[in-house]
Design brief:
It contains two helices and two strands; from the N terminus they run ααββ. The protein has 114 residues and is mostly helical. It folds into two domains: 38 residues; 75 residues, High-Potential Iron-Sulfur Protein, Chain A. The relative contact order is 0.16. About 5% of the residues have low confidence. The structure holds iron/sulfur cluster. Iron/sulfur cluster (SF4) binds next to loops.
């Protein structure tokens, strides 16, 4: 047996379903935003520890006169001390706990991968 639904009830039901869909979408997005918010900060070049080791975000900015031991082609990406997931542009470094370094960067703590 089919009963017709009054127009007001149909509109309310449609609004309810729409709100439910929006709530589901927000639930899916919120954990992502929370994980992004908990990502450690990027290491600042002016951070005293970074500055002491000549950290730069772009290896092209290495001061060659100050760091003559710099080996051409060395970057954070091929440093033994870099941690984290391959493919991410900013990753943890065991020399700077709690901060992320640029894989395009470099510092005088660079160590060749074994
Ligand atoms: S120790 Fe290695 S990974 Fe860490 S900042 Fe220096 S060069 Fe980059």
């Amino acid at each position: 047996m089919h009963r017709s639904v009054p127009l007001g009830a149909a509109v309310r039901r449609r609004a309810f379903v729409k709100n439910l869909a929006m709530a589901a979408a927000m639930t899916a997005v919120l954990p992502l935003r929370r994980s992004q918010a908990s990502e450690p900060p990027h290491l600042e070049v002016k951070d005293p520890a970074a500055s002491a080791l000549g950290y730069v975000e772009d290896v092209a900015q290495v001061e060659l006169k100050k760091y003559p031991a710099y080996i051409k082609g060395s970057t954070c990406e091929n440093c033994l001390l870099l941690q984290g997931t391959t493919g991410a542009h900013y990753r943890p470094c065991s020399l700077f706990p709690g901060k992320l370094v640029s894989v395009s960067g470099w510092c005088s703590g660079w160590s060749a991968e074994i």
